[in-house]
Amino acid sequence: MILLIVDDEKLAVEGIKANADFSAYGVTQVLAAYSMKQAIRVMEENDVDIILCDIEMPNGSGLDFLKWVREYKPDTVSVILTSHSEFRFAQQAVHLACMEYILKPATPDILDSILSQAVRRVSQNASDAQAKKLGEAYVNRVYDTEEETPTQAEQVRKYIMEHIGEELTLGALASKVYLSQNHLIRIFKKQYGKTVMEYITDCRMSLAEKLLKDSSLTVTAISAKVGYPNYSYFSQCFKRYTGYTPSQYRNKFRNE
């Protein structure tokens, strides 16, 4: 089992490591990240099971990171460890399916309790995933005996295009066409050559590029219009996609 600590303060990370007996709960590897960008890279390179995450970090908050986790690694168990007691932060954490919201400093007893809960949640998720996998395998065998049509993938594609500025999740899209998520991924990629989430990102980035070049909307307004209510998160995604920040991209084309 792999656990990731995300905090821009190295002393805080070391304090958590010193105050928790991770091995007692089956945690075989404890990783650390000190920014959102670094945390995403760690998540992409490792099968992380549990995240202990601070809120306030440079260039993307812990909540921005957990939004990314919810979209791309939804089975990961997340816990907020922060000095912020504001109710609005706790509300956002709940919305992002965060298991717990803990105020610093976390005592060894609190960390032990959190780890115990998190490990149970990981085990439950694994059991649920196995049961779901078996059910989906049966459903897919049924579908495989029938002639597939592109209708459902096309319905999802059209829905994405018509709601590109709204929150779009794989689970919600699959339920709209009465398919399992895995089956939707398979038929969508077969028809369009990319996953559903890759397609959504491509559409959002293409629209953002067009609006930055051809409209007078503010960059913040464009961010919201293409489905990223958090500008900081949008800016990071856009730079990963194009190599430019939104402002750099707009200036580049206006100066050509």
Number of distinct beta strands: 5
Strand content: 5-15%
SSE pattern, N- to C-terminal? EHEHEHEHEHHHHHHHH
Average the pLDDT over all residues and give the rounded result: 86
Helical residue percent band: 55-70%
Number of H/I helices: 12
What would you say this structure looks like, in words?
It is a single chain. With 256 residues, this protein is an alpha/beta fold. Helix content is 61%, strand content 9%. The protein has twelve helices and five strands. It has helices spanning 10-19, 36-45, 62-72, 87-95, 108-144, 151-162, 170-176, 181-192, 196-214, 219-225, 231-242, 246-254, and strands spanning 2-6, 29-33, 50-53, 77-82, 100-103. A five-stranded parallel sheet has the order 2-1-3-4-5, sandwiched between helices. Strand 3, helix 3 and strand 4 form a beta-alpha-beta unit. The longest helix has 37 residues, at 108-144. The radius of gyration is 20 Å and the shape is globular. The termini are far apart.
Descriptors for this entry?
256 residues, alpha/beta, 9% strand
Strand and helix map with partners:
Blueprint: E1 2-6, H1 10-19, E2 29-33, H2 36-45, E3 50-53, H3 62-72, E4 77-82, H4 87-95, E5 100-103, H5 108-144, H6 151-162, H7 170-176, H8 181-192, H9 196-214, H10 219-225, H11 231-242, H12 246-254
Summarize the structure.
The protein is of the alpha/beta class. The protein contains twelve helices and five strands. 30% of the residues are buried.
